Amino acid sequence: MLNKAKIYVFFVSGCIGIYICATIQPFLVTLMNPFSPVATVTATNKLTDVYSGTLKLDLQLVNKQIDHLYLHSNEVLYNSNQHWQRLKSDDSSLPKTPQETVQKPAALKSNKFYSFSGLPRCLIYSAHYDSYHSVIKFVGFGPMTDNHLSTLENLQCSVDDGFNQSELVPLSVYYRISTFVPWQGQTYDSYIYYCTTHISQPTSVSLHYSKNRQNSVVKFSLDKVNERNGSKKYKFAACVAPIVLAYNNTKAIKHYITANTFLGAEHFYFYIADASDEVKKLLLSLSIATVYDWPLGELSNKTHSFGQKAASAHCLYNHRVESEYLVFIDIDEVLVPRSAADWASMVASLSAEHPKAGAFVYQSQMFPRNTKSANGSFINRHHLWSLQYLNTVGVFDLYQWSKVLVNTDRTDIVDIHNVRQCYPGYEIINVKPEVGVVHHYRLYDSLITDTYSYQDRYMSRYKESLVRLYRSMFYH
C-alpha cells in the first residue's frame, strides 16, 4: 500500500514538473540567452526621449510586456515588472525598421583655417553664397591694417554650378569686423572677404593664387541658396561663443541649454576651440546641438575674444537657411523676456511694433556668481544658475555686454555686442530692459558691492518648470 502511495506521489510530482517546465521554458531560454528572442521584437509605440535624443519604445518580447526600452551608447536597458536589467550588446542586434531607427550622435564637424603663403597671413574658415548681393562671402582672419586690400591682389576665385565655371575674379574685403579695444597681443581682426558671381545657383568656389587656374588653393562647397522668407526648420536657434581654455563645466552647459530651451531655443550651434573630453561627449550626445571644430591653435592669443566675431559670422551665414532667428549668447547667459512668456511672443510683439526690424539688441543684467546662494541643494548641485544666483548689480548700458537676436534674412554683419549692419531697408532695434534682457551669470569680483546690489527673482517664477525640464533632459 505504501509503495502504491509513493508511485502516485512521484507520478503527480512528475506531471507538475513537466507542466512547470513547459510553462517557464520561454522565460528560461530568455535568461540563458537573452539576445536570441530579440529578432521577435516589434515596436508598438515610439516616443523620442528628451535626454540625449535616445528612443523610448514600448515593446513585446516573448509575449512578456516590457515597459520601457532605452537605447543609449552600447547598452540596452529594459524594464520588466519594475526590475531593470542590463543587456551588454551592440544595438545593431535590434531590428532597424523605419519606426525604430536609433539616432546616432552627430560627429564633430571638422573645419580648418586655410592660410595663404605669400600673403600677410590671410586665413579662411568657410565660404557662403549671399543671394541678396550675388556674392560669395568668406569668413576668416586678416591683419589689423587698413591697407589689407592691397595684399589680396594675387588671390582670386572662380565659382562653379556643377556645369559651368566662372572667370577668375579678384578676392576683396567685404567687411572688417574691427575691434574697438584690441586685446593685448592681438594681431588679427575678423574679416568677411568676398568675390562677385553671376551664377545664380553656385555649388562650389575655388580660390587661386594667381591667374593660372591650375594653382588652386582650396575648394569650398556651398550650401543651397537661401530662399529668403521661406519656410525654415527652426524658429529660434542659438549661436554660442567659442568654447576655450580647456573648458570642463558640463553642468553650466546643461543649465544654458535648459533655460534657453525653456524660453524658445530649438537648436544650438557650438564652436569648440579647447574643451575637456566630458564637454565634447556631452555636446555630441545632444540631438539639439551642432558642434564645430574651431581650431585656433596659435591664433588663440592673436585674435579678439578667441575669434568670436568670425564664429558669429559663420553661424549667421551657415545657418540662416534653416533658422528664422538666431540668438547670439554665451554659455553663462540666458535671454529673458520680461513683457512676454517666451521668445516667440516677445519677438512677435516687437515685430508688430517695428515691421522693418532686422535685428534686436538686448542690454545685459549681471548676476555675479561670487555671491552666496541660499537655494535648494538640487539647484546648487546642478548649477542651475538662473535659480541659484539672484543678487544682481543691475542692467548695464546699451552695447556694454549687450547681446543680439537677429532675423537671418535681414541681417548682414553681426558683432559680439551689437549688429554692424542689416540689409538695405531694415533697421536695428534697441530693446528696452522691461521688454527683454540678457541675464549674465559671471564671476566678476569688481562688480560686487553691498551698496548697489539687489535681488531679482524674475526667473524664480519658472522654478518648478525649469527643474522639471532639466530632469527630463539630463538627470536620470
What does the secondary structure layout of this molecule look like, with pairings?
Elements lengths: L1 H31 L9 E7 L6 E7 L2 E9 L2 E6 L2 E6 L25 E2 L7 E8 L4 E9 L12 E5 L8 E2 L1 E6 L10 E9 L7 E5 L7 E6 L12 E7 L9 H14 L3 E6 L4 H8 L4 E5 L14 H12 L3 E7 L3 E5 L5 H11 L3 E6 L1 E5 L8 H5 L3 H4 L2 E2 L10 E5 L3 E4 L4 E4 L4 E5 L4 E7 L11 E2 L7 H12 L2
Parallel strand pairs: 15-16, 15-18, 16-17, 20-26, 21-27
Antiparallel strand pairs: 1-2, 2-3, 3-4, 4-5, 6-7, 7-8, 8-12, 9-10, 9-13, 11-12, 13-14, 18-23, 19-27, 20-23, 22-28, 24-25
Helix pairs in contact: 2-8
Please characterize this protein's 3D structure:
- The chain has 476 residues and is of the alpha+beta class.
- Helix content is 20%, strand content 33%.
- It has helices at residues 2-32, 250-263, 277-284, 308-319, 343-353, 377-381, 385-388, 463-474, and strands at residues 42-48, 55-61, 64-72, 75-80, 83-88, 114-115, 123-130, 135-143, 156-160, 169-170, 172-177, 188-196, 204-208, 216-221, 234-240, 267-272, 289-293, 323-329, 333-337, 357-362, 364-368, 391-392, 403-407, 411-414, 419-422, 427-431, 436-442, 454-455.
- The strands form seven sheets. It has a seven-stranded mixed β-sheet with strand order 17-16-15-18-23-20-26, sandwiched between helices. It has a five-stranded antiparallel β-sheet with strand order 1-2-3-4-5, with no helix packed on it.
- Helix 2 (250-263) packs across helix 8 (463-474).
- Residues 20-106 have low confidence and may be disordered.
